[in-house]
């Protein structure tokens, strides 16, 4: 938890230097997106290890923001087809890939984390980067506030609608059935992107014959360690509970809707639990569903065709 009472938060983005000299990029965002980014960062860390930038909650005059530690040697891909000194993102998946003379790894982990976290940025191939370290170069993801798209219809503002959830609540509104039908038509491929959709969206990945088996290996490890993954989610929301009052959580999410969706998906949530615990249980239930879907979709070693 980074804290400053002298931080200028008048703009959308702020740079902050802590007492140890570390520089942080502070983003001022809606509370639900702050929570998304914080929790998603922990899941990416579970998958990729300590290669992504540190992400922390940042308190300034009772306002809560998200802060990302700035990394040296950071090279952002603006879009999937963007090149960095002639190096494309898919090049990171090639055998013996090198950038500035250093070996490159981490593409499969970044892609798998994007799929597991329902990260909507995948639709535009955004927020991938190379990070040069002393010994190698890693592909990383950053800016995770578009993760967990299943929460979109549970924001008080309802800034977007995840269609399979929206259908539960909008069909009875005036014009609701047509609204839901159009939402499904417009957003379904972004709501729950499949493994196969990933390769349709990023056809250059098809030139990497070993990538499906790499994704499968990562998934097998995560699937076998679900208990640890769920503990990571619990711990992230415990931090949320310690730093964000329930009164503010109640204004950020529609918990009545959340509990209704949980019942429809057979996710156990108790109205007696603290609000952060309800969010944790719902997130765990949806991630468990996602893991099961990927378990069925990802090719095995014996069937590695796209």
Q: What can you tell me about this protein's structure?
A:
The chain has a domain at 74-146. The protein is 43% helix and 16% strand. The protein contains 10 helices and 12 strands. The chain has a 5-stranded mixed beta sheet with strand order 1-4-5-3-2, with helices on one face. Strands 6-11-12-10-9 form a 5-stranded mixed beta sheet.
What's the quick description here?
By secondary structure, the protein is an alpha+beta fold. 43% of the residues lie in helices and 16% in strands. It has a domain of 73 residues.
Terminal CA distance = 43 Å
Strand content: 15-25%
In which range does the helix fraction lie? 40-55%
What's the assembly state of these chains? single chain
Total helices: the number is: 10
Bulk shape:
globular
Low-confidence stretches: 1-10, 156-177, 183-191
Please provide the count of β strands: 12
Report strand order across the widest sheet. 1-4-5-3-2
Element-by-element helix/strand order: EEEHEEEEEEEHEEHHHHHHHH
Secondary structural class = alpha+beta
* Largest sheet geometry: 5 strands, mixed
* Cα radius of gyration in angstroms: 20 Å
Report mean pLDDT, rounded to a whole number. Answer: 79
List the helices and strands and how they pair.
Layout: E1 2-3, E2 13-17, E3 23-27, H1 31-48, E4 55-60, E5 63-69, E6 74-77, E7 83-84, E8 87-88, E9 98-99, E10 102-105, H2 107-116, E11 128-132, E12 137-141, H3 163-170, H4 176-191, H5 195-201, H6 211-224, H7 226-243, H8 246-252, H9 255-264, H10 275-297
Parallel strand pairs: 1-4, 10-12
Antiparallel strand pairs: 2-3, 3-5, 4-5, 6-11, 7-8, 9-10, 11-12
Helix pairs in contact: 1-2, 1-7, 2-6, 3-4, 6-10, 7-10, 9-10
């Amino acid at each position: 938890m980074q804290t400053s009472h002298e931080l200028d938060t008048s703009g959308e983005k702020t740079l902050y230097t802590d007492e140890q000299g570390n520089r942080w990029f502070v983003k001022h965002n809606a509370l639900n997106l702050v929570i998304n980014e914080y929790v998603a960062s922990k899941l990416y860390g579970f998958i990729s290890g300590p290669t992504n930038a540190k992400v922390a909650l940042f308190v300034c005059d009772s306002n809560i923001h998200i802060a990302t530690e700035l990394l040296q040697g950071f090279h952002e891909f603006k879009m999937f087809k963007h090149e960095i000194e002639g190096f494309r993102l898919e090049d990171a998946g090639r055998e013996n890939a090198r950038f500035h003379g250093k070996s490159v790894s981490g593409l499969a982990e970044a892609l798998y984390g994007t799929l597991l976290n329902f990260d909507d940025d995948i639709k535009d191939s955004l927020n991938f980067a190379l990070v040069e370290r002393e010994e190698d170069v890693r592909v990383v993801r950053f800016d995770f506030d578009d993760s967990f798209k299943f929460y979109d219809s549970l924001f008080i503002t309802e800034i977007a609608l995840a269609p399979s959830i929206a259908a539960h609540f909008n069909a009875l509104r005036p014009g609701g059935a047509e609204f839901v039908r159009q939402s499904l038509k417009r957003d379904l491929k972004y709501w729950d992107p499949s493994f196969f959709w990933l390769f349709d969206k990023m056809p250059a990945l098809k030139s990497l014959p070993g990538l499906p088996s790499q994704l499968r290996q990562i998934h097998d490890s995560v699937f076998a360690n679900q208990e640890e993954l769920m503990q990571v989610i619990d711990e992230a929301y415990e931090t949320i509970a310690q730093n964000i009052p329930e009164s503010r959580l109640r204004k950020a999410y529609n918990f009545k809707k959340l509990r209704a969706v949980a019942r429809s998906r057979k996710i156990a949530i108790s109205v007696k639990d603290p609000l952060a615990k309800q969010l944790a249980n719902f997130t765990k239930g949806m991630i468990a569903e996602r893991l099961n879907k990927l378990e069925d979709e990802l090719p095995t070693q014996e069937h590695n065709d796209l």
